Amino acid sequence: MAVKPYKLALVGLSAVGLAAVAACGEAPSDSGDDNADASFLACMVTDSGGVDDKSFNESSWNGMLAAEEENDDIKVDFKESSSETDYDPNLQSSVDDGCNFIVGVGGLMTENVNAIATANPDVSFATVDGFSEVENVYSIQFDTAQSAFLAGYVAAAQTQTGTVATWGGLQIPPVTIFMDGFARGIAKHNEDKGTDVQLLGWDVEAQEGTFINGFESATDGKSQSDTFIEQGADIIFPVAGPAGIGALTAAAEDDAVTAIWVDTDGYESTDYGSEIITSAEKGLANAVKDSVLAAYDAAQGGDAVTGSYIGTLENGGVSLAPFHDFEDDVSDETKAEIDALTQQIIDGTLVVESPASPTAG
Amino acid sequence: MSTDTATPPAEQPDAAENPPPRPGFTQLFGRYLIEANSVMVTVYSLLLAFLIGAVLLIVSDENVRSTYTYFFARPQDALTSSWILVRDSYLALFEGAILNLNTLERFQAGTAEFGDLLRPISETLLNATPLIFTGLAVGLAFRAGLFNIGAQGQLIFGMLGALAVGFSLNLPAVVHLPLAIVAGALAGAAFGAIPGVLKATTGAHEVISSIMLNNIAFFFLVWAIGTGFFHSETKSELVTKPVDESATLPTLLGWLGAGLRVNLALIVGLAAAVFTWWLLSRSTFGFRIRAVGFNAHASATAGMHVGRTYASTMAFAGGLAGLAGAALSLGVGSSGVTTNTALEYGFDGITVALLGRARPGGIVAAALLFGALKAGALSAQPDVPVDISTLLQAIIVLFIAAPALVKAILHLRTPRGGMVTLEAKGW
User: Fold this and answer.
1) What is the pLDDT of residues B346-360, one digit of tens each?
2) Which residue in A272, A265, A270 sits closest to A322, CA to CA?
3) Residue A120, in any domain of the structure
4) What is the model's pTM?
5) Is any Cβ of chain A less than 8 angstroms from the Cβ of B74?
6) Are residues A231 and A102 in the same domain?
7) Would B35 be classed as within a structural domain?
8) Domain total in chain B
């Protein structure tokens, strides 16, 4: 029987494929898995978006990895949720997998974490962006209004047109808290320096503003930013994770327009460093890492981790990122004022109010 | 895979005089296996999908991939690690969807309850439930020659309808729960009727209008959750009030273990499948649906109201998708509904209907398969990438939708009745 052409093609294809991947490299000697025989298993259950969302899931996971890096006796794992209906099975199977410490990312998961923590008092839990009163749940929250306040103050000092803008992904507390802080920072500048800088996109008294209904679409983010630029804004503060990139592309197209980033230092984490004056940082990775190490320490004494953490300017959990390319543009006067305001917030003489501020335990 | 094993006896016109020996069962069965009939195409599609899935698992695993870089130095590394990866991955899917072997061991050792053994099955059934409804919603419309891509939007409206009744009325469970379910069905039906009515009155294509209505439904959901009527009183996130206890779907196996979440909606789903079967094959309305789907012009000539059939079929399909929404919002328990609750169940309904060949029994089977894949993938992560379930579903449907491809790859024979393809009317 003649060899059929398709069979030949198959053989050819597999040969090419094999050659492509099969270099004649040396076989390695036994390489051990990372912390393969660690005694402490820390697991993370993501919110929707997945572990590589370039946003809070990813930051939290980086914190887990940092903890694994730091302590050889810790191994980390994660489970992704595609919606809130996945929270319960993911938390339950993490318990079944024998995880010693389980981090639930996202305020919406708090109730689910509470329920399973009550049922499993020997296991340590943590909830990110949510507050829990359950004994063995460690609450990780951030008063990002503080860092956003400083960002707002900088924006008010830097604007040429007297108009700045912000927009959010969804109207949820972890987003609006940034917008509240930003608005109050601008108001503070107006009050102290007699300026009249206008903010588009968020009314702090009415708690109403502009949202693009999602965290994914940079296209929506760009068109929203373009709208604000047409209305005269020259500094944009997007609070929408990856969709915020749209504001950076809009800023890149217009020489007069710049942006302020959220969550991470945008100079490092995005490709648009030259457009970013500064960033209102939220030290998620460090906080998660610390919680894993704390849970590990507690487990060595046979206990579950307790307590809570609120990231503030004081403990470095939130901060204003360096100015990088804008180091020379921001006046020394403004820098001094920022330092003074930071000190006042740390001292407690200045309180940045937001309805979304974390409730202390 | 070789096709030259059994040469069938040629059909002889004068068979009466010289009857050929009747083929035995094994021979018939063997011939059936290498034929591109609908059953075998489905079986081979599944097998091929798992085969391609295995290749992708190997390619996407960094550790296994690295063993291929020294393939010629030590090939057994690459082969063993590939085999172990594929075996463990599919075993993990099985354990998450059907039976967890670890739990079985613990059960035999007396450290696990019987209910713990049933948890994977319960998760499979729970995940399959909305798919049964949306699969029926797409499949029913399909039989009328309509391509209902709007199941997602209909589901969202069903979710909101059931939710509104679920938390705003104060009634005993006996009345409250059925009322909330009916409200979900009606809301879905009302929204589903729109593309049907548009097609009947203006000729607007239902594919276009139902796709657009999906977006309208989603943004309506985002807006609705934010309103004072729906928004949670205790949480500031974008989440609705939870439904009352009296409108919550009771679990079926809750008495065996707290983690068994499969609920009454499954029974409703199976009942809906039986009803849809009856409707299609035994009722006058169903006859009209099939007649219009087979040939709208002939049906019109025969005196049937084609437009009215389109509108009522779409309303009916919308009602089925609305039930999926009710199953979600009345089943999530205390947490309330977010913009994420609907996931992609409406769109997955299209693939379920395709795999089930638009027949109620097939749709239930397909929904169970996809439910199992989802449950398995969720519990098997992170060792197995969670996207594997979506990927397998996509490949399966790709093959099902293109039986000629399966036939060509495996060199199957053309069955006597010709190839089975789904009726492509209305696409």
Assistant:
1) 999 999 998 898 899
2) A265
3) yes
4) 0.79
5) yes
6) no
7) no
8) 1
